[in-house]
Design goal:
Length: 72
């Protein structure tokens, strides 16, 4: 029973990570589209920076369990 709960929690984490990654890449592609990019001004650069930051974070964040991530 406990094993099933942990397995479900891990599946939920993987699904959440995949959803965030998909959203970030879709947003990146959208803001780089010529039709959209031409409508954005320099103040909207924050959007691109935030998306790039998220993608970079996902690439560098260790794929460990919560317990392993907090232990030295």
């Amino acid at each position: 029973m406990l094993r099933n709960k942990k397995s479900e929690d891990e599946e939920d984490k993987v699904e959440a990570k995949n959803a965030l990654e998909k959203y970030a890449y879709n947003m990146c592609n959208t803001i780089k589209d010529e039709k959209i990019a031409s409508k954005l001004d320099s103040a909207d650069k924050k959007i691109e920076d935030a998306v790039d930051c998220d993608i970079q974070w996902q690439r560098t964040w260790p794929e460990e369990t919560d317990e392993a991530a907090v232990q030295p």
